[in-house]
Write a structure and sequence with these properties.
The protein is mostly beta strands and 104 residues long. It has one domain. The chain is 0% helix and 63% strand. It contains no helices and 10 strands. The strands form 3 sheets. Strands 2-1-5-6 form a 4-stranded antiparallel sheet, with no helix packed on it. A hairpin with a 4-residue loop joins strand 8 and strand 9. The protein is elongated. The two termini are 18 Å apart. The relative contact order is 0.30.
Amino acid sequence: MYALVKIGGRQYRVEPDEVLKVDRLKAEPGGELIVPEVMMVTDGQEVDVGAPYLPYRVTLEVLEHGRHPKVLSYKFVRRGGVRRTHGHRQDYTLVKVKAIEKGK
């Protein structure tokens, strides 16, 4: 069984006991989150698609917060004396899917 859910403005395919990195959420490690925005659920035989959401909910356990590796971008202008380096590290939250349940 898996579901398509909307977490933090992005769509994720989740299965029970799956661990995934999502954009940083305002939740403490060790806590639980309930995601009511479930767009599709399938058990392998039947597919249930919402318009836009279904009466299901996904329970997530927050494991930890972290940061992705640094991504560097460069700007170089030939014969212009312009060289710029910019780095970025995106924050993430590591969550574990505990259950996909019917009912809001």
